[in-house]
């Protein structure tokens, strides 16, 4: 393992491949169900008694799930690879995440196709600009870190909104533009069926062992 890989791996609790599969199979469907709940909560026009009953049921389920929880800041890895189950962009166990499924083509290029519903709305029928920025920040990071295999973090990102991004099916691509010392510069976009709606470019910097404390926490 390289020194950079060692610095990255120190940030995660190790799971075996079978245990990672078990955790994902158990909790990802729960997150899917909560995503459906979020969507219908936004859309519902149910009567008062139905809403009251739903609130009571949700409170009961929340309390039962809260009985056993993991500490804040604990993430997982399998071997040298992170397993970002709670990530806000790709975490299959995070109901806030779409979640993105990112495909890598080699050479620092990646892409994803995804659907954004009402939970991500800004202006009526359009994606919130902050959500677009989140997705592009993640995609540039995926490209620059070569699939989250290298410890690199966003230094700067510039987002250019060309037009409103409609809710629905979208595509994002990102790639490494160039390297300068410890910095990796990446570019990317989000597009709908009619073309590109948002562009971004950013600089990712390489983390070193000195950037982490004794328990693997980033300290710069």
Characterization of this structure:
There is one protein chain. The chain is α+β, with helices and mostly antiparallel strands. It has a single domain (1-220), classed as Hotdog Thioesterase (Thiol Ester Dehydrase, Chain A, Roll). It contains four helices and nine strands. Strands 4-5-7-8-9-6 form a six-stranded antiparallel beta sheet, with helices on one face. A hairpin with a 2-residue loop joins β7 (168-180) and β8 (183-192). The longest helix is centred in the first third of the chain and has 27 residues, at 17-43. It is flat. Belongs to the THEM4/THEM5 thioesterase family. It is a peripheral membrane protein.
List the helices and strands and how they pair.
Blueprint lengths: L2 H7 L3 E2 L2 H27 L4 H19 L9 E3 L2 E3 L19 E4 L2 E8 L12 H16 L7 E10 L6 E13 L2 E10 L2 E12 L14
Parallel strand pairs: 1-2
Antiparallel strand pairs: 2-3, 4-5, 5-7, 6-9, 7-8, 8-9
Provide the residue-averaged pLDDT: 88
Low-confidence stretches: 1-7
Q: According to CATH, what is the class?
A: Alpha Beta
Number of DSSP helical runs: 4
Could you name the CATH topology? Thiol Ester Dehydrase, Chain A
Radius of gyration computed on alpha carbons = 19 Å
Helical content stands at: 25-40%
Strand order of the largest sheet: 4-5-7-8-9-6
* Biggest sheet record: 6 strands, antiparallel
- The general outline is flat
Count of individual beta strands? 9
Order of helices and strands: HEHHEEEEHEEEE
């Amino acid at each position: 393992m390289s020194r950079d890989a060692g610095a990255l791996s120190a940030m995660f609790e190790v799971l075996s491949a079978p245990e990672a599969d078990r955790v994902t199979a158990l909790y990802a469907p729960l997150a899917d169900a909560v995503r459906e709940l979020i969507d219908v909560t936004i859309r519902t026009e149910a009567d008062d008694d139905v809403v009251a009953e739903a609130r009571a049921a949700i409170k009961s389920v929340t309390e039962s799930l809260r009985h056993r929880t993991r500490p804040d800041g604990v993430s997982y890895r399998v071997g040298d690879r992170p397993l970002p189950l709670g990530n806000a962009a790709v975490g299959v166990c995070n109901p806030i995440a779409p979640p993105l499924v990112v495909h890598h083509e080699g050479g620092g290029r990646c892409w994803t196709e995804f659907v954004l519903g009402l939970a991500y709305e800004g202006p009526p029928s359009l994606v919130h600009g902050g959500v677009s920025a989140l997705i592009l920040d993640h995609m540039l990071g995926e490209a620059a870190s070569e699939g989250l295999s290298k410890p690199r973090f966003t230094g700067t990102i510039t987002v250019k909104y060309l037009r409103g991004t409609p809710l629905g099916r979208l595509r994002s691509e990102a790639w490494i533009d160039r390297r300068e010392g410890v910095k990796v510069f990446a570019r990317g976009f989000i597009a709908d069926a009619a073309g590109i709606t948002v562009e971004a470019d950013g600089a990712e910097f390489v983390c070193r062992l000195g950037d982490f404390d004794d328990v693997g926490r980033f300290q710069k």
